[in-house]
Amino acid sequence: MAAAASNAPATREAPWPVGLMSEKIAAWVDRLGQVWVEGEITQWQLRGGHVYGKLRDLSQDATVSFTVWRSVAQRLTSEFAQGDRVIALVKPNFWVKGGSLTVQVFELSHVGIGELLERLERLRRQLQSEGLFAPERKRPLPFLPNLIGLVTGRDSDAEKDVIRNATLRWPGVRFALHYAAVQGERAAAEVAAGIEALDRDPEVDIIVVARGGGDFQNLLPFSDERVLRAAAAATTPLVSAIGHEADRPLLDEVADLRASTPTDAAKRIVPDVGEELAGLDQARARMSARLGQLLSHEADRIAQLRGRPVLAAPERIVDERAEELVRWIARGTELADRAVEDRTRGLAEARARLSALSPRATLERGYAIAQLADEAGGAGPVLRDPLDAPEGTAIRLSLAGGRLAVTSAAAADG
User: Fold this and answer.
1) Residue 142: alpha-carbon gap to chain centroid
2) What are phi and psi of 350, to 5 degrees?
3) What is the CB neighbour count within 10 angstroms for residue 22?
4) What are the backbone dihedrals phi and psi of residue 389, each rounded to the nearest 5 degrees, phi first?
5) Roughly how many angstroms between the first and final C-alpha of the chain, as a whole number?
């Protein structure tokens, strides 16, 4: 009768007991048997030799609890921790009393490093083809940031290393802290959110993403595409300080600067106040020495100039020029007098020649100029031939003392 009831369909009038439904679920789950699954360990707790944890899907929001009994845990050949990607042979179990689904782990191993590297290499090639690794995208860091944004784990060694070393180098440095999980299922999303939040803050001059050392799988969140896209989209210069020198997550390629360790990041983002003060002292010393050399050189040059005769006895040049001026004045006066004498003598000679050639000089010697009188009684043409002045012709005579009006008589012979 009980078996018939368990096979009857559940109805409103004849519902199944909760226990019956749970037993049916347990039976159905049990038929699934053992399966291989891949996921990320998000919880790993050891109690009494048994391991209790959770396994998360790598691409969607799905999580299942698992149990590794002591007998199986003792056979595991590797160390496991939160954040590891693993492949497990499991058998699902539905606990009727508690109404919960768990899986029992029979075998557990890390996802092959080769497979992870292949995934990362595909992502690397994709981002490189988009130009996210290009050197020309790298922005210079500010010389002295006013506010440093730090994305790191709460109370982590990386946080302490960055803050302590940066403060030692420049005591006045300030930080804007954004805490995030640095391994496990939440790490990639929280780190990306931290980068985006600090990039939106206008006072933040530089962003540092820092995490201490860890194994390859623990550092995988810093090669997650979400973190890389957030770093590439940030307008604030970004420094990657993940792990140790040998660790190279993809964030190192996208960041504007890769620091080998968090301590190295602190040294790269702020100057050393002691070195800067020493540099200022050296610069002052060089400037002082240079100015001293210039002043000494100019003083020597001035002394040389003052030692020259023209500056040692400046009145000498005046005296020399005064004597020279006197000589030139005397020479000029002499030449001027001589020129006046020469011109006077020449003028007298010219006047004498002019006088000798002048008609008046001829008149002075007793000669006269005879001219026919014109109709108005004035002087007309010069009279050269007596035949031109028949008897009774009016003639005008020009003498040295003046003019006479005469009348011609009969022409005389010879």
Assistant:
1) 11
2) -65, -40
3) 17
4) -130, 75
5) 209
**Which long-range CB contacts under 8 A does 104-110 form with residues at least 24 apart?**
104/66, 104/67, 104/69, 105/51, 105/66, 105/67, 105/68, 105/72, 106/34, 106/72, 107/72, 108/68, 108/72, 108/76, 108/80, 109/78, 110/78, 110/80, 110/84, 110/85, 110/86, 110/217
Mean pLDDT by 10 residues, the chain (414 residues): 63 87 87 89 90 88 91 85 85 88 90 70 90 93 94 93 94 94 88 96 96 80 93 95 80 93 93 88 92 92 79 75 88 91 90 78 78 75 81 82 80 58
Label residue 32 left, alpha or beta by phi (over 0 means left) and psi (-120 to 50 means alpha).
alpha
* Single-letter amino acid, residue 328: W
The DSSP bridge pattern shows strands 35-47 and 50-56 to be antiparallel
Instruction: Report pTM.
Output: 0.52
Query: At a CB cut-off of 8 Å and minimum separation 6, what does 196 contact?
Result: 230, 233, 234
What values do phi and psi take at 404, rounded to 5? -130, 145
